[in-house]
DNA sequence: GACGATACGGGACGCCCATCCCGCTTGTCG
DNA sequence: CGACAAGCGGGATGGGCGTCCCGTATCGTC
């Protein structure tokens, strides 16, 4: 691969990260190209489809999240790890609109694009939840989907810290 | 107004209600016309803009909600009225995708279109919340926006009854 | 029953977007 | 340094949408 191609690919990825984080997954390919300082053709060549750009960006973010989750799970007691991860996810989704949209299933299917990495995320979320429930820190009947829904509420709330308090109180036995 | 015009207007409104409830606010004007059995021109004439259709439909729904809220507030103790209204809203938003989108502020601004009725909704929500807080049934620091966010979580959850339980537990002092 | 006004259908228009393509530029290697 | 492959920019293309318009059909009245 030619050096300039490599450079442009990087520029596109970085611009797309920033654009998705700031404006969500609806930003146009042209806008991403503009931010990156390249033409739309260049974006299209590196990522033949807008979905392939989504995939590249979102999956990188998901890997980062999985990694952080592993750290938490190893370092903290079950209950703390769960609630710390929850707060971390709220933080991530708040500062990254594209990620929030991707996680809430809006318009783009992470699952289909990301057989491996996304399964990792689901598994580790499930593990964190299971352990917290075994430790009695979370109601027994709560599912991963419930947690996801509550995450959405925290992202939408004006005062996220207070909302996390409320949600946490509801989740404990 | 001519009789056929009146008929068609009604058909359009009913079709739009059904379409918005089922598919959300993204349904095309052509699709609404198709469902109503009229051309797109007829839809446009009665509602010159898609937003004016939104307004007509959503506002009718909001009036219905306000009316129900008044009934609840008169009939039940403060705490019960609040939590019953919350459950009622979850039910409404679940069975009406368009309403859910309108309330969550996605794409269409109820406020701007509905100076009167929408203010009524906000006021009565605020009253329900204030009274519930005075009665000690809801945490003092919760705001209307918080409640709205939690409503979103209940709509998104697979088991709404359980989620309402969780949220209720979190909202109580 | 006929005539004028009113409303209808659906095609035309303009806009936005993702994707594809092609003439030109730039990097790389002999 | 020169030539060719690789990459670039941005215009062209096709599809979807909301809105507008006009020839035609229908309604209500005289």
SSE layout and pairing:
The structure is a homodimer.
Chain A: H1 3-23, H2 29-36, H3 40-46, H4 50-75, H5 78-95, H6 97-103, H7 110-113, H8 115-134, H9 144-156, H10 160-171
Chain A binds a DNA duplex (30 and 30 nucleotides) through helix 1, helix 2 and helix 3.
What level of helicity do the residues of chain A show? over 70%
Q: What is CATH's topology name of the largest domain in chain A?
A: Tetracycline Repressor, domain 2
Number of domains of chain A: 2
CATH class of the largest domain in chain A: Mainly Alpha
Q: Treating each run of at least 4 consecutive H or I residues as one helix, how many helices of chain A?
A: 10
Indicate the multimeric state.
homodimer
First-to-last CA distance of chain A: 56 Å
DSSP strand (E) fraction of chain A?
A: under 5%
**Count of β-strands of chain A:** 0
What average pLDDT do the residues of chain A reach? Answer: 93
From the alpha carbons, calculate the radius of gyration of chain A and give it in angstroms: 18 Å
Order of helices and strands of chain A: HHHHHHHHHH
Characterize the largest beta sheet of chain A: strand count, sense, and whether it forms a barrel: none
CATH architecture descriptor of the largest domain in chain A: Orthogonal Bundle
**Global structural class of chain A:** mainly alpha
User: Which segments of chain A are poorly predicted (pLDDT under 50) over 5 or more consecutive residues?
Assistant: none
Apparent shape of chain A:
elongated
Report the CATH superfamily of the largest domain in chain A.
Answer: Tetracycline Repressor, domain 2
Question: Largest interface, by Cβ-Cβ below 8 angstroms: which chains and how many residues each?
Answer: A-B, 25 and 25 residues
């Amino acid at each position: 691969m030619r050096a300039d191609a490599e450079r442009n690919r990087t520029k596109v990825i970085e611009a797309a990260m920033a654009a998705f984080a700031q404006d969500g997954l609806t930003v146009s390919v042209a806008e991403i190209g503009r931010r990156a300082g390249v033409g739309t053709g260049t974006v299209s060549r590196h990522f033949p489809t807008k979905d392939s750009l989504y995939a590249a960006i979102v999956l990188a973010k998901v890997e980062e999240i999985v990694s952080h989750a592993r750290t938490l799970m190893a370092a903290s007691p079950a209950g703390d790890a769960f609630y710390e991860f929850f707060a971390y996810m709220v933080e991530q989704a708040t500062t990254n609109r594209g990620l929030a949209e991707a996680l809430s299933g809006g318009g783009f299917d992470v699952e289909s694009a990301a057989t491996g990495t996304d399964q990792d995320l689901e598994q580790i979320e499930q593990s964190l939840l299971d352990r917290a429930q075994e430790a009695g820190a979370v109601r027994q009947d709560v599912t991963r989907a419930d947690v996801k829904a509550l995450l959405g509420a925290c992202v939408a709330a004006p005062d996220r810290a207070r909302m996390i308090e409320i949600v946490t109180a509801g989740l404990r036995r």
